[in-house]
Amino acid sequence: MAVIGVASMNDRAYILCNGSTKIQVFHMENSVYRKELPELVIPGLRNPVDMAGHDGWLYVLERENELFWRLNASVVTPPAQPQECRIVVVANALSVTPDGHLLLSVRGARNLMIICRTKDGEPVREISLPSSTEFFWHGLVRAQGEFVIAHRCEELPQVSLLDCRGALRMDYRGNLLGNPVHLAVDEEGKIFVADQNKQKILYFDADLQTVRVLVSIESGQPHRICFNQDSGHLLVGLANGSVEIYSVNETKYLEAINDGDEINET
Q1: What distance in Å separates the CA atoms of residue 128 and residue 144, rounded to the nearest whole number?
Q2: For 28-69, what is each residue's pLDDT tens digit?
Q3: Global pTM?
Q4: Do residues 73 and 56 touch, judged by C-beta distance below 8 A?
Q5: SS3 assignment for the chain
Q6: Which of 113-122, 172-181, 252-261 has the lowest average pLDDT?
Q7: Which residues fall within 8 angstroms of residue 246, CB to CB, at 6 or more apart?
Q8: pLDDT digit string (tens) for 70-124?
Q9: Which of 10, 89, 122, 129 is the most exposed place for a label (fewest CB within 10 A)?
Q10: Rounded-to-integer distance, Cα 191 and Cα 126, Å
């Protein structure tokens, strides 16, 4: 089953696969990841499409049922009970803003982002994407207040920067892009892009002026990514159900985690 959600907070990594109600938990110590039990269970979860983490909380999005689940991942014994929050749209992806709100990515007749409260899904703000947007994959907010979006415009995949009002500032449409499905950023505003078709992770500077291929993945298509600033680790969820982990500072591959017990730095 494909990985549809990865999150990393403090010294833990969280993995959610398509069709599962269980979030696998891994503990990291000295660049070694070991699987922890119990898994986090959301009994009513149906067809999740994305997951994000912030300040000890996990947020899991269900597209078709127009809701997300919130779960306090820091409460382990006994595990915290997940809470269901209804939303006003069919969203295809989510992220957490620097101030702790959820950012929902919505595609369709209107391509837009909706910022909502994490505790109940109440919408706070709506941001319309540029009218030229034809298909919208994922969006997030940087600490600087700007939006980063992965979308298609004039039949070309691109990554764009929008100002705090949603107006286009800068974009990249180079031939390195094929199907940019998911995004992450570091504290300096640099951008990671998971490209499904190209099977690569791209790394942009904060202004989209320079780009390099950070990772070429031979084992499968990347679906989801997240970056842990404290550890410097980038987690890449793949279509084959595993998560590959890379040390960005050292540009170093740290093996993969899935149903196995642990991984070790090589």
Answers
A1: 19
A2: 888 788 887 789 999 999 999 999 999 999 999 999 899 999
A3: 0.93
A4: yes
A5: CCEEEEEEECCEEEEEECCCCEEEEEEEECCEEEEEEEEEECCCCCCEEEEEEECCEEEEEECCCCEEEEEECCCCCCCCCCEEEECCCCCCEEEECCCCCEEEEECCCCCEEEEECCCCCCEEEEEECCCCEEEEEEEEECCCCCEEEEEEECCEEEEEEECCCCCEEEEECCCCCCCEEEEEECCCCCEEEEECCCCEEEEECCCCCCEEEEEECCCCCEEEEEEECCCCEEEEEECCCCEEEEECCCCEEEEEECCCCEECCC
A6: 252-261
A7: 201, 214, 215, 233, 234, 236, 252, 253, 254
A8: 999 988 777 789 999 999 899 999 999 999 999 999 998 789 999 999 999 999 9
A9: 122
A10: 23
Q: In one letter, which amino acid is 179?
A: N
Single out the residue of 233, 235, 232 nearest to residue 224, CA to CA. Answer: 235
| Mean pLDDT of the region 138-160 | 94
Distance CA 239, CA 221 (A): 5
Query: Which residues, in sequence order, are CB contacts of 11 under 8 Å at separation 6+?
Result: 27, 28, 29, 231
How many CB atoms sit inside 10 A of residue 66's CB? 14
Give the contacts of 145 (CB within 8 A, at least 6 positions apart): 164
Mean pLDDT calculated for residue range 235-250: 92
Radius of gyration of the chain (CA): 17
Mean pLDDT over residues 154-161, rounded?
94
Tell me how far apart the alpha carbons of residues 127 and 148 are, in angstroms, rounded to a whole number.
12
